[in-house]
Amino acid sequence: MTEKIRSLKNLFLYECLFTLTFWNSISLSVENELSTSVSHNLPEDGPDNENKTQPLLYTSNHKSKASFDWVVIQNTTESLSLSEIKNEDVKKLIALLSNFKKGSRLQYLTLANISVDWEYFTKILQTVWHSSIEYFNINNMIQLSDVTNCEFDYSDTSMKALTMKKVLITDLYFSQDDLYKIFSDMNIEALTIAESEMIHMLCPSSDSPFKYLNFLKNDLTDLLFQRCEKLIHLEKFILQRNKFESLSKVSFMTSSMKSLKYLDMSSNLLHHDGAEKRCQWADSLAKLNLSYNQLTESVFECLPVNIKILDLQNNQIASVPKGIAELKSLRELNLALNRLTDLPGCSVFPALAALNMEMNSILTPSADFFQSCQRVVELRAGRNPFKCSCELRAFIRLEKQSRRELSGWPEAYMCQYPEDLRGTQLKDFHLSELSCNTTLLLVTALLLTLVLVAVVAFLCIYFDALWYVRMIWQWTQTKRRAWHSYPREQENILQFHAFISYSERDSLWVKNELIPNLEKGEGCVQLCQHERDFVPGKSIVENIINCIEKSYKSIFVLSPNFVQSEWCHYELYFAHHKLFSESSNSLILILLEPIPPYVIPARYHKLKVLMAKRTYLEWPKERSKRALFWANLRATISINLPMADGKRCGESD
To answer: Any transmembrane segments, and where (predicted)?
Structure first.
């Protein structure tokens, strides 16, 4: 019954106040929303969620509109929102708020677009302090003037959280202590002063109950809370988008905050010089956000030893130094948007489970990462300028074999180099095992080389290549000596009708049959025989070459004995060389005895070719056919040669 009477009384007061006054600049509204209570645990979704204004709790409402403004009233009101409040409205506002004593259902109050002096603001704040309101939000307040010291009564309050955003002080001459003291000594759990160009905040005069402080987007510097030992209950501290510069001074600021778990220092001007004194952080600090600063790899010398979640995104870190202190508790590390060229090892991060390496300068991530970081279950390495090479292939293969999650795969993983592969997704990049496995490539190359050497050696042996090389060398040397010994015009003068090549075992037939029948027959035939016409003092090879070149034809007496003679082979080789070099038809083959193919050595392949492609004269066994044989042979070598007296062979006076 008492509760019903109180509700009716409040409803009656609403109607009387709004009926008897003309608030042209005040808007009351009751929203149909529910808000969760202010949480002071570590944030789950990052620092951005920490920066939101404390939420308001509302119940069902209905709206009515007076002739001067919108008004929404509900007799079970838990939330009240007022707008456009000026100095002349303060007394009426205080009178209204004074009715919400402890035990009232009103818990959430929001004042927006306020333009009042310091004195009126403190009176409003004092009235709220002793009401049933637990969460007080002020948005867009212009503090006109007259900031002075005031005695504030913090006792007997229901307040839990105060949020102030976009506060502007227009008074140019006032004591900073008068302004900040009223906030620093508040006995509430959460305080937010954001986007207000605040340059300082006093240390509480006694142990503070603050668990949550949010000073987002102000002008605070390294002087904040230095040697302050009163924030022993502070758990979350947000200093995003201020003007802090020294990381070591920030660490000393937190050293006395025994309960601090989360610190957001993102978007400042932080740097750290390795020469600075050693950093000293709060032992309880578990989550630290240092993103969007000017930190280099020296930052790893100034980190909390018990840190669990570390955000170093968008700094100037080029590497993770070796030999730094081990961060045994670190589970999440964000190194995106830095200058790293490879994935870091986990020797100093033994408990690391999540790593973000996106948008760095990684060309070929080392595959050693998977061996070093066994506990990493989530890796973000996309949007790097990958160089599609064998090293990258090894990384992709090991990643597929592991059970960790590669976030952003495959869309965020593309080749940047070489140019012809730019834009290719790594999942579509393939290289053969042979081109990437150096050992396999060397073994394959060695085997192919050995096979090639074996084939070449076999061919050389089979075709007697060394012999031909030696013959080419002999022929070259002979031609060189002849070039220097005789005038060019005498080199090609023919002196013999034919050069005779035969085996010593067939010399009786040559001396008894061939030479007599050609030289003593009709006509003047001059034959070159090595026993008779070789020049003493010259090498045998040189004599052979000279005789072949000065002879119109070369007669080879073929028999099984011929193919067994080394010198016959020389003579055949040089004659065959003349055949091709001079495009002449100078070879005459006489088959004295049949030669079985298996008798001819492999190096006599030229002889096999000649016998297969050229017509040869076969020595007839019947005497009746020999006259025709000699006639054909004599006709083949018939030519008028110049004589020593200027006449030609066969000519008479």
So the answer is: 440-469
